[in-house]
Amino acid sequence: MNSRRETDSERLLEEFRNKMMKAAAAHGFHHPEVIYYSQMVDLQHNNLLEEKKSDRKCPMFQADCMA
What we know:
Layout: H1 8-27, H2 32-55, H3 62-65
Helix pairs in contact: 1-2
């Protein structure tokens, strides 16, 4: 069992992903609503990576820590 709590950013990412998948099932992958949610997923994923990068003092991005 994983005891780590899901963050607000992770919940938001999952919410956008679920909406994207439902919209794709209803309208097809090229529908503007699907593209919008896909872009929101990308933005939220980037935000989450930035949060984790700063929280962990960049273990995944060692070059950033060298400065």
